[in-house]
Amino acid sequence: MSPLRSSATDRIELLRGTLDLLVLRTLVFGPLHGHGIAKAIQSQSDDLLLVDHGSLYPALHRLVRKKWLAAAWEDTPKGRPMKFYRLTPLGRKQLVAEESNWRELARAIGLVLSRSELKRP
Q: Which residue in 21, 59, 73, 76 is a FRET match for 65, CA 20 to 30 A apart?
């Protein structure tokens, strides 16, 4: 699935296929709550990638069901408990597979885009 550019902000909105990979990658650096994950992805992409909370939370729940993430409520310095997500060993293994798949897909797309003429079967 491809990202879509928003004409109003010229940022990229993520679709589900890419989101799992980015969530897993973000949590390599340590546990975060949902909003923190969204902000980290946005920050790491120089504010080009936007993570809609309506897409993020279903993705987080899906990744927990797959046992790629673990979630637990924790107290925060603001005194309000928040749910923090952590990468599991199974999630780390999946991240390696997802990164490999993404690199292969990007390579294949690059080949198609770099062709100077249509190659007929």
A: 76
Q: How far out from the chain centre does Cα 52 lie?
A: 11
The confidence score (pLDDT) of residue 99 equals 94
Alpha carbons 23 and 6: distance in angstroms, whole number:
21
Model pLDDT for residues 69-108, shown as the tens digit of each residue: 999 999 988 889 999 999 999 999 999 999 999 999 889 9
Q: Name the 3-class secondary structure at 50.
A: strand
Cα distances from 64 to residues 67, 86, 89, 96, in angstroms, run 5, 9, 12, 17
Topology of domain 4-114, CATH: Arc Repressor Mutant, subunit A (1.10.10)
The predicted model scores a pTM of: 0.82
Going by C-beta distance under 8 Å and a sequence separation of 6 or more, which residues neighbour residue 57?
34
Which amino acid appears at position 74 of this protein?
E
> What is the DSSP code (8-state) at residue 45?
T
